[in-house]
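Action item from last week, closing it out:
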Amino acid sequence: MSTTSSAAFAAVIGGIAGASLAAHRGVRTAAGAALVGATGLGASEAVARARQHEGEIPPLWQRIAVSAALAAPLGWISEKVTAASPRMVGAATGAAVGVMGLRPQKVAMGPVVGFGVGEVLARRHASAAVVASSSVLVYRSLSALVFREAQVSLLAERVRAADLPFVVPRPARTRYVGTTYVRDLAKELGGDYVADAPDAGIVASLDALTGPELDPDQVDPLVREFYEHTTRFALDIVPQWRLWVRPGYLLYRTLVARPFGQASIPMNQREAQRGIHSRIDTVTGIDGVVSVRGWVRSFADDDEPIMLGIYTTYTHGDTGYVSVGFPVPEGSFTATLLPRPRADRGLSLTSRAHDGQAGHYLTYIDTAADELTALAMHGFEEQLDVHVDNGALRAEHAFWIFGFPFLTLHYRIARKPAA
């Protein structure tokens, strides 16, 4: 969006906000406030865009101003429709912006701050529009002071895939990913597709992960075999969700995961007992080398998708990494993981490295222009530990959001019976 169009859009928001804030004082006053709001927010947007460098998002102060302006007409509507008290308007507004902050501390802080703002403004007989706008302004300002570390940042805008080697640039071409994604990708690439490739692994060789911290020869042979010949093994998943995240995950799964056919992890042990079908689909180029490895996991009873990841390896400096791309419509969510040895000769793959490579990246992929725009998701972390326990393979896949653990997947891994 150009500076002119973004400033014009901000001016519209400011005008509506001004009218909402002054609506209780009559038409003439509301019209004047609309003019002031349009001029002020439009001008601040123009200044913000002029100071914005390439690859950056607008500055925080402007984002706060716009969000506070957006809240004003919503507060005005709530007053007309519900006749809610200032305290209720403040608490509801705070709860809404708190949820948008995602971080549990922000979610908890939102309604408290909003209620406090409503309590103060109720004594001054402020309108609901003023309460809603002020609640957003105070909440976001406090959040900026308390939570200084950015949880999401714009990493790159409209760059080539080669500039982001830790991103797997494989988008979904349709709104549904499902279990046939690799087959459809093979048609697009013109490669040879093999469904449920025999004796395939999620990596070609563990040697690709060699680095200062990892000597693949020191990894337990059974762990190495699992990575290089994954299809020799059957998996059972025991999900362990933290109680606080279950309502949010249920909503996400219903509205996003199942409609997209991607990242729909079992909710509980009873659901996991449907059984897990694990396979690796591959695409081979004209040179005979496997260019795509897609690990497909679905429920055994009806092949409902659980998760599909495109597994790749790459080297940065002298360190090998695993990058797993999860295709989504017009983009991908990539987990880039640093391999580390365990004391028991197992292997950890972790994003908790903060080395400029490991991490999580949400990427929009413009396939026509062959360009990527990527966000770094600093607040999301994971670690996969595969090890041998009393002669049996075990794995724990742990996830954190904003430093809080929310899910651990316990894998029971057994060798498949000989055919």
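Closing note: The chain has a mean pLDDT of 90.
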